[in-house]
Amino acid sequence: MISLELIREISRSSPTKIVLIVLDGLGGLPDALAGRTELETANTPNLNRLAAKGICGLIDIVGRGITPGSAPGHLALFGYDPVRFIIGRGVLEAVGIDFSLEVGDVAARGNFCTINKAGLVTDRRAGRISNDECIELCRLLDGLVIDDIQVLVCPVREHRFVVIFRGEGLDADVTDSDPQQTGVAPRVITAPQPKASRVADVANRFVTRAKKTLAGHYPANMILLRGFSQRPKLPTMGEIYRLEPAAISVYSMYRGLARLLGMEVLKTGTNIEDEFTTLKQNYDTYDFFFLHIKGTDSAGEDGDFERKVRVIEEADRVLSSLISLEPDVIIVTGDHSTPAVLKGHSWHPVPVLLCSKWCRPDRVSEFSESACVSGGLGRFPATQIMPLAMAHALKLTKFGA
Amino acid sequence: MISLELIREISRSSPTKIVLIVLDGLGGLPDALAGRTELETANTPNLNRLAAKGICGLIDIVGRGITPGSAPGHLALFGYDPVRFIIGRGVLEAVGIDFSLEVGDVAARGNFCTINKAGLVTDRRAGRISNDECIELCRLLDGLVIDDIQVLVCPVREHRFVVIFRGEGLDADVTDSDPQQTGVAPRVITAPQPKASRVADVANRFVTRAKKTLAGHYPANMILLRGFSQRPKLPTMGEIYRLEPAAISVYSMYRGLARLLGMEVLKTGTNIEDEFTTLKQNYDTYDFFFLHIKGTDSAGEDGDFERKVRVIEEADRVLSSLISLEPDVIIVTGDHSTPAVLKGHSWHPVPVLLCSKWCRPDRVSEFSESACVSGGLGRFPATQIMPLAMAHALKLTKFGA
After folding, report:
1. Mean pLDDT of chain B
2. Contact of B237 with B245, CB cutoff 8 Å
3. Which one in A222, A242, B226, B282 has a CA-CA gap of 20 to 30 Å to A391?
4. Phi and psi dihedrals of B156, rounded to 5?
5. Are the C-beta atoms of A338 and A301 separated by less than 8 Å?
6. Which residues in chain A touch residue B30, judged by CB atoms under 8 angstroms apart?
7. How many CB atoms neighbour CB A169 within 10 A?
8. pTM across the whole model
9. Mean pLDDT across the stretch B327-348?
10. Mapping DSSP to helix (H, G, I), strand (E, B) and coil, where does residue B138 land?
């Protein structure tokens, strides 16, 4: 396997530009009637033109049969072995709201939820309370000190918040309190190893305090915590690829992930068109752009086949503005599949297209799962996307004499 | 990954014969007008017949996106992981001129070059001086002893020579003096680690002496050194595969590489037909032949699309004489791509065909980059060519009970 160390050795800075467009959860499955996936159903003249001019293939994100979460999905796309580099959900949420996570902090993703009188979870999202209410409730829980550990509580949006445990010698290897289902009680947080027992203890005491504080705040009368984690040590994309990378995403988590990898996060608006406008406005300043489109995944998760089709079509429309900039390399792919019929992430390989002056075109003239099967890029691990992008941008020197 | 150790365990000697034909830099890119690569443009009835009868695919030499040098390219074809086994340019040049490199010798590739009065390089190849002049100048520089280290200087051809530093406890981990560009001064050779500081020091003193000696020999009034290296420890092909391997190449560097791997280097002439004649003459004596064709790469490096097409067509013509010998396995491939439009090595995968009585034929009936995409061998690492060749020659026993 080609290591990041090898790539770092042969990478060189150059004025060429790479744009990586990630349609979150792009890959799909056919609907029962027409037998076509979301991408195959969508009318995508621009993507098809790029596919015809460029080269296509299918990527495995973690490995065949493995369904990736959002973090491993994106890490793989950026060239980081997602099995080697693990980023916890708590860390992702924290960096996603610009919380300045210190080395050693333990972060967890929190949900305000609803429990009934028997203490069983009836709604894991407390009816998706408003942002304002989230801010207000976080203020009630924030600022405790338990066993010398500072407990910081920050709102994210709706029912979501982050809790950060700050103190000396903390270990994040504890279980979730979130049972990921309704009809059961929140779980007690436990530490499989003694080194994390202090964090488990403090977290449980925090949950107990929160339950008391929230008692009168139905439907947000309890909290669920998951993804306890600490900031991992990662080489930045600038260090590895000698790039000046920028990230554009409407969603905080992806901005946070990009920031962890040393990307400059660009301010953008609320929809796909805003994201492409942001790219254009900053085009001269960076040589790598990660543009993230969330709607495909959200629609897939909701089981809304038609909406996923529409998001793909919208992305295709605004793509024309990018094509006119003539970046040296355009890559369009996803961080995993989210077939509407499965209502969730899946293990299916993700179509990818790469368009560049220096690609060897194949016979694929349509960007779809079934056409990509016979694409010239073949089927390959997602971690090889970045070396391919770098090569086609002529940013990699020769390996060996 | 299948290790050389595993292959060694299951390899057995047998009378069957394998011929591996390497068209250097075979893979190409389409020209702007016709949209066909060099191989797709060439008229290749024999290669197409082999492709139809055999099985095709595409190989990655080092990995997707990685552009290999000649040494890693060939090492991979012979089954040696090119990231694990590194052969320096100096060693390659030395063994390529039959210089008998001792263990511990440090070899560097040298160029006679031109510098101006300000000491800046104006021509990295000194106008490609004649072989005779190269021999004469090497004689002037040869035979120094600096700090108890013997400095041997041997001509290669035109502006190229090899310098060998011979002494006790030398380490080759020093930087190049060759800046790989004009308009700048030759670089001072440095040692990143103290253990190599003596070699750096002696090499710098040698360069200074050479500059004085060559002062009146414009355009060859200076030297550039690069690729300081020592002979690596490699298992031979005989040890791994239990083969009696022979190498046929018009070019010294490939003969040298073959010799490092324990191949017998056969005397041959100056063109492709000579090489095939040599093969025929020695057909009974060996059971593995590496036949190297350089012209494809040279034409690609020169950006000469038409010449590359002609070299491929010439190779195709003489191939008929080999086919009539009916070797048990014929493989035709390249050590990397050298698209004429890129005028250099590239990362693009290389078409490969394998023809044997025991292959499972696919539907590919034409040897070309685009046809090989859908070949039965699929897309795979070049290091798996040798196990495939051995298997089809029935030279590998079963693995496991």
Report:
1. 96
2. yes
3. B226
4. -110, -80
5. yes
6. 360-361
7. 8
8. 0.90
9. 98
10. helix
Q: Are the C-beta atoms of residues A351 and A310 closer than 8 Å to each other?
A: no
Residue A214, CA distances (Å) to A108, A126, A141, A164, A186 in order:
19, 12, 9, 19, 15
Domains and CATH numbers, chain A: 4-86+234-392 (3.40.720.10), 91-229 (no CATH)
Is some CB atom of chain B closer than 8 A to the CB atom of A401?
yes
- Please report the beta strands in A335-383, taking only residues with DSSP state E, as ranges in sequence order: 350-356, 378-381
Instruction: Give all strands of the β-sheet with A329-333 in edge-to-edge order.
Output: A264-265, A245-249, A288-293, A18-23, A329-333, A350-356, A55-60, A378-381
Instruction: Give percent of chain B above pLDDT 70.
Output: 100
Are the C-beta atoms of A90 and A397 separated by less than 8 Å? Answer: no
CA–CA gap between residue A134 and residue A220 (Å, rounded): 9
pLDDT of residue B303: 96
Confidence of residue B233 (pLDDT cuts 50, 70, 90): confident
Q: How far is CA A348 from the centre of its chain?
A: 17
Report CB contact under 8 Å: B68, A399. Answer: yes
Q: Which residue has the tokens 């301010």?
A: A267
B379 near A CB under 8 A: yes
Average pLDDT over residues A313-339: 97
Compute the distance between CA of residue B229 and CA of residue B109 in angstroms, rounded to an integer. Answer: 9
A207 Rama class: left (phi>0) / alpha (psi -120 to 50) / beta: alpha
Tally helices (H) and strands (E) across chain B: 14, 14
Given a cut of 70, whether residue A197 has pLDDT beyond it is yes
Nearest in space to A329 (alpha carbons), one of A80, A70, A14: A14
Residue of A nearest to B37 (CA): A360
CA distance B306 to B313: 11
Give B276-297 pLDDT, tens digit per residue: 999 999 999 999 999 999 999 9
DSSP for B10-61, please give it. Answer: HB---S--EEEEEETTBB----TTT---HHHHS--HHHHHHHHHSEEEEEES
How confident is the model over A272-309, as pLDDT tens digits? 999 999 999 999 999 999 999 999 999 999 999 999 99
Residue B76 C-alpha, separation from nearest chain A C-alpha, in angstroms = 12
A388–B37 C-beta distance less than 8 A: no
B63·A378 Cβ contact <8 A = no
Cβ B62 vs Cβ B358: under 8 Å:
no
Q: Which residues pair with A353 in a beta bridge?
A: A56, A332
CB-nearest partner of B69 from A374, A377, A399: A399
Interface with B, mutate which of A360, A379, A396 (most B CBs under 10 A): A360
Give yes or no for a contact between B311 and B295, defined as CB atoms under 8 angstroms apart: yes
> Average of pLDDT values for B89-103?
89
Confidence of residue B98 (pLDDT cuts 50, 70, 90): confident
Cα of first residue to Cα of last residue in chain A, in angstroms, is 20
Backbone angles phi, psi at A131, to 5 degrees: -60, -40
What pLDDT does residue A1 have? 65
Q: Taking the CA of residue A379 as centre, how many other CA atoms within 13 Å lie in the half-sphere pointing to its CB?
A: 14
Q: Which amino acid is at B231?
A: R
Note the pLDDT tens digit of each residue in B300-320: 999 999 999 999 999 999 999
Query: B38 Cβ partners below 8 Å, 6+ apart?
Result: B28, B296, B300, B305, B308, B309, B312, B339, B340
